[in-house]
Design brief:
The chain is 40% helix and 27% strand. It is an alpha+beta fold. An 8-stranded antiparallel barrel has the order 1-3-2-9-5-7-6-4, surrounded by 4 helices. A hairpin with an 8-residue loop joins strand 6 and strand 7. It starts with 8 loop residues before the first strand and ends in a 6-residue tail after the last helix.
Amino acid sequence: MPELPSVPITLEGSSVLHQMFHFDWTAWKKLPSGEKQTCIHEATNLLALWEQDAPSQSAIFSLLGHKGDILFVHFRNSFAALDRVQLQLARARLHDFLRPSHSYLSVVELGLYESSAKTYTALAEQGLEPGTPEWDAGIREVVERQSKAMAQRLYPAIPETKYICFYPMDRKRGEQVNWYTEPMADRQQMMHEHGMIGRRYAGQVRQIITGSIGFDDWEWGVDLFAEDALVFKKLIYEMRFDRVSAVYALFGQFFLGIRIPAAQLEAWLQAQFPS
């Protein structure tokens, strides 16, 4: 049997852009009342339109802390569609008061560790060699079948929860510890154990994993959605004790936000956002 690939099969879905901004409250306060109302009306209508069209959808969140004031999260079916929504926002009057602080580009990703191992073994047992047209056709068949079966997870609506927690992360690949040199069977087992922790929180947290290798500075982005922000701490803390996180994980900045529905955008802009 030939040596099997070490790279797991992945499925890709929605293209995702996170945009973090500081809001220029000083300039906003100087804007005449009539111009404020025009800006609010335009922005509210735009956000209401973006909210409706799941899974090509956007949502905004009020950020806590110094890293930004407002977070725009866009889910679209392509990078070209993300570019269009980014330009839509740039042309809006509200954008005159937005100062970029951070952004993150990625695609919804599902890693098929278990399916990969089974698929590679089955193809090898048929006498197929990795990298041949016949092998690649077998992989495409699995990807197409699994993508259809998991369409809802690959193209999700943005959950209508009160809180979001977003953070990017890597797997270590240094001299002492390197995730990418571990055998696939070991990585598969560790990811299974990691996933079991997440399943215990399934009724409290909705998690959407996005892949960003080649698109942004980290390897993955993680969005957590919940009605109670405290559950983010409990979930992430518990995960730190499993081997995947304790040995191999590196984390970027964390962003915590509170959902601003279109109907409440005016209140937020008037610093009257409800608690």
